[in-house]
Every structure is written in structure tokens, then in C-alpha cells.
Amino acid sequence: MVNHARDLRKARDKFFTEQEFDESVRDQISFSWERSRSLNIPPDSLQLPFVREPDMDSPLVVAAAPVLRQLADGLVDEPVSVILTSADGVVLTRAAGSQQLLRALDSVTLAPGFSYSEEYAGTNGIGTALETRQPTLVSGAEHYVDSLGGLVCAGVPIVHPLSGQVVGVLDVTGWVDEGAPLLVTLARSATAQIEGRLLSQSSQEQTALLNTYMKACRRSQQVGVLALGDDIVLLNRRLRLTLDPQDQAALIEHAIDLSMTIDRSQHVLTLPGGHTVRLSPFLDGGLVLRRGVAVYHAYLSETTITSVAADSIKGLPGIVGDSASWRHSAQQIAHCARQQEWVAVAGESGSGRFAALKAAAIQHISTRTHFTSAAELIAEDARMRSLEFEIEQDGYSLIIRDVDLLPDSHQRAIAGMIQGREHAGWIGVTIGTGDHSADSDALVLPFFGHTVHVPALRHRIEDLHKLIPYILRQVSRGQDVSLSPAAIRQLTKYSWPGNVAQLREILQQVVQNQRSGVIEVDKLPPVCRALSRRTLTPIEAMKRDAIIQSLEGNGGNKQAAAHALGMSRATIYRKIREFGIDV
User: Fold this and answer.
1) Which of 127, 142, 196, 503 has a 20 to 30 A CA-CA distance from 246?
2) What phi and psi, each to the nearest 5 degrees, are found at residue 188?
3) pLDDT digit string (tens) for 31-43?
4) pTM higher than 0.70 for the full model?
């Protein structure tokens, strides 16, 4: 054993000094050393990033908890630790009876929240097991980083029995002179128990999901029902027959996004084919909700507005877009204005709902339209008096922005003003897509016979090809400036949480820096080159911008950019991936 350890240390030194492998090194280890070297991992220092706080409610942690407790109780007097990680090598939880071993683990940040993937830690029982999908024993000098040389680690991938995906690793770690074969056997046995619990847990959840789906179908036979699980998507007959494959795919994508949040309120969306759908969670005590698991009622709009030719919206000032969902919304708004039917236009902030409503009023309402907003009505009492005066006039025409954001007192007052004045003039309002207040639903919105839903920009991304040159002409005041095809492609990758209003702000910023010629990708603001799927905090946004600027200033060299920012190479790699930076 001593001779083997000595031979292994010599082989390790030979690898790092002469770039050659020794026959005493197992293939699994030598291949991992080669991967670690290609990742430029320093063998003499451990630089592990803190990735995230562990999700202790995840199915893996729940399934593993009793197994880990049993192991911890049995090993309380042994210098051995039991460690559970996620599929990307982040330590979720650990247990050990030896305080000396725990201190050693802390010294190498083998602790919850830190990643032990090969990308950061080189060859080790956790990262190499994830990389190879095989049980892996790494002992002493077989570790790529020297500071791990006092440990022996036996990692076994945890494979979900239904999906076949690796969902984590069960690792048993001890001192290097402890019995390695015993650690491997122990890890294999514990992993098998966890996988069995995952199967039982998934079967119970799938049964509950199916029962809840069937209950939702029975209660509302004329309503669409959609159910989502980790590997399950269920659509009832109503949705399958009404929606074409493209709309079904869009609906499922929306529902998956919603199910990954803790927000279980109602949401309204417009599908590519023009259908408007209100997704309402179906809550039933038999199904334990978690991220990625949900059942929705999908209320499809029954469009009563007569279809109009697509060419009829071309005359609406400021209305740009050829996508089916945008044309459909604009046609409905134009029809309501032409028929002087009261309409509520719903959509996300900045989506163009007010612009479309205003353009329709200008084009089809013969009298001058007065505009006001919830913010103005709240800030100035005189605005409410002016609104009341306008409604008292015959032939009035009004647009109220964000009427759903008005406090209860203002909504009651407006409901009183318009009561009995429905046929004396025309009113259009804009509202958000989330839940409205009870007073808005009960007092104000019932006066509006039609609700038209405007799609968010991310759901009509093809319209960017017309919106970009149109807005560029406006913000550049007619100067000869354009975006390159590569820059436009980059903008189509962005999620546009601020919709068209955000697009205008970004193009204004671009034009301030370059007033003529062709604008390339590197001239776009950092936010457009970081494709994170979540909203960043202000501090995170500042970090993202600093990393992008440093990368640009260092010719894309990540090591140099990290040095300039005073951060480690591992940290900048993690931040690039976290923020979705594409430079």
C-alpha cells in the first residue's frame, strides 16, 4: 500500500513535469487528469465557486434524507463523511461524525453550495463520477489538486429510475488510509436506496398528477386542461382539437415557464395563431405543488369580433409587425374603435397596448380622443374632475392607461361616472395581464364588452425585423444608421422583459454611441449580450456589465479579464455561464 502510494505520487509528478502518463495510473484517472489540464485547473490551489444555496425541498434531497440519516447514525463513530450533490456537482448536504474530518472538508470547501464538478475541482470522486456516469474511486494523489491528496472519495451517480438522467452523486469521503473498497460498497448501497425512493416518490407524484388532471377534466368538460410533470405533459381533447401543433407548443412553453415560479396566479397570453388563453392553476389537495409540477385550466377566448383584412391595420399610425398574434390583436382593437365598442386592451407593460389603442382611436374615432393614466389620476385630483367633465360631454372619446392600477376609491368613482353614459361616447382602457383587484373586476371592467390581449415582444420575436428599422429611424431622426444581421440575430435571442419600450430605450442608447453606419454586435449594450433566463438584481446587472466590458477590453481572454476584475478564473467562468454572456 505504501509502495503503491509512493508510485502514484511519482506518476503524478511525472504527469505535471514531463506531460507523460505512467502505467501505474488507472485509465479513468489519467483521462480525468487530461480533462482537468485542458480546463487549466491549477494543481497547486483549489478555487471553488459558491454556486447557490441548496434547494432542500428538491425531490432528490427529500428522497435521500432518510437514507443519509441512517448512514450518518451508522457512521457516527467512523472518520467518514456522506455527501449528496446535485447533477452539476453542487454540494447539497453532508454528514460526518468526526469533527476533525469536517474541519478538513471545510478547509477544501467541500461544503453545501460549493461545486465539485471537474470544471472547478479537477479529478475527484464527485466531479469524475458525474463526467463518466460511472462509480468512481479517487484516492490520495489521484486527485488532480494537491490539497485533496489526504482524502479518499467514492462517488456513485444517482440515476433517476424513470427519466434515466443523472440527478446527483452520493459520495462517501474519508482519510486516505481508510478502507477504500468499503467506501465504494457503502456508496453503491446508499445510492440504490435513494434511487428506489425516487421511483416510489415519482410514482406517487405521477399518480397524484394524473388524478388531479382527470378531476380538472371532469369538473370543466368544455374548458382546456393542461398538466405538467417532470417527464409528463397532458392536454385534454378540447386543447388538442382547438389548437394547432404550433399553438400547443407555445401554450406548453408558457405553462412550463409559469410552473417554474412560485407565482400561481392567473395569466393571460396570446398564442401565435391568434388565440387568447387564460391559464388558471387548478389547485387540489391531492397534488403537492412544486416547481415544474402543475395543472392548469386553459380558457380559450371565443372571438366574437368579426375578422377584418390584414391590410386594414396598415393605416394605423405607429403599428408595426407582421406576426399572426400581433395582427390579430391589432385587427380586434381597430374593429372595436371603428364600431365604437368599449374595449380593454390587456398586455405586459411596454408591449404596445397603448400605442395600438391610441392608433386605432386616431384612425377610427371622429372626435378628439383625450388620454390619461392611472398615475396622473392618482397624483392630481384635478385630473379626476377633468375626467368626469369629459364623460359628461356627448360624443366623448377617452383612453385610460393602467386602469387596473387605480386604488379602490378611484375605481368606484370612475364606475359611477360611466354608469349610464355607455352610449354617449367611447372609452378604451389598458390593463395588465395578472390578477386584477376585486373592484376592477366587479365595477370597471364589466363596462367593457371586449378584452383584447396584446402579445409580449418575446412571443412575437419575428417582428423585430420590422420594429428595429422603424424605431431606428425615429430615434436617429432619419440618419443613415442600421444594425448588422449579426446584431439583429443577437437581439432575437434576448427575452425582452421590458418589451417594445425596452427595445426603444436600447436603440436610443446605441444611436447615442454611433450615429451613422452599420452597428455591430459589440456596440449593443451588455444587457443584450447576456442571455440570463432570470431577472438580475441591480448589483448582478452591474457585475454582468463589468465582466462584459473587461472581456471586450482583454480581447475575450477570460483569464486576463478575471485578473483585471480581481476575481478568480473559476468565478468569471461561473458568472459568464450564470449571466449567459456571449462575447
Assistant:
1) 503
2) -60, -45
3) 888 888 888 888 8
4) no
